[in-house]
Amino acid sequence: MTRKTTPRTSALQLTDVTKSFGEISVMKGVNLDVEAGERHAVIGPNGAGKSTLFNLISGLFAVSGGDICLNGRSITGLPPHRINRSGLARSFQITNIFHRLSVFENLRIGVLARHGVRFGLFQPVSRMRAINEETVDILERVGLEPRADHLAGDLTYSEQRALEIGMTLTTGADVILLDEPTAGMSREETAKAVELIRSVTEGKTLLMVEHDMSVVFSLCDRVSVLVYGSILATDTPERISANRQVQEAYLGEEAAT
Predict the structure, then answer these.
(1) What is the pTM of this model?
(2) 75 with 69: CB under 8 angstroms?
(3) Beta strand 205-209 with 175-179: parallel, antiparallel or unpaired?
(4) N or C: which end of the chain has fewer CB within 10 A?
(5) Domain 10-256 homologous superfamily, CATH
């Protein structure tokens, strides 16, 4: 009896992607396939090109060669706002929020933009009610409802990171890129952040850059190792941690234990 296998669908696919800044080659033919619905991490040493990779995917940098596809359609050469509207949202290493607006207003701006609504005094009450209800729903999902009326700049660091994750949700994107979402957090804050990410990415596709290996191995289905602009290996966290090439290039001897 032949066992049927479920076909895998690519949510995000990079094919021979290169990037050069003048004579300096940063990306050297990157091939990466992120399956729909999986949580996928990119790890690698400092200077490996992880942030550059995210900038290429999200359209902040133009690729020098190769192709990037989102849900089967090429997004190569599209500006960031077009890529976002195509279903991809990202966070940044440095928290990117509106510090002088309230937490609620930060999230409502994203919801308004997704619905193509410009905030003004003459919006229909029913339409604004729906916008506000959706904003409250996202507040609840990221655990910030008690802080709704506080200025975003007054939040703790971990709360600001949660707000930024909430802002990626306002776009309605089904592919989310998180750039070091737990960087600078305490162990307790990291544990809460992991549970938040697990919850809000349920049913979505996650690609993340993360240095904390305990976060990567507890949260992600697969891991890709980026070393000096090339993907060295892609596999499950367990197999990556046991891969001698990966240990030598990045994880070190501690990975063996």
Answers:
(1) 0.87
(2) yes
(3) parallel
(4) N
(5) P-loop containing nucleotide triphosphate hydrolases (3.40.50.300)
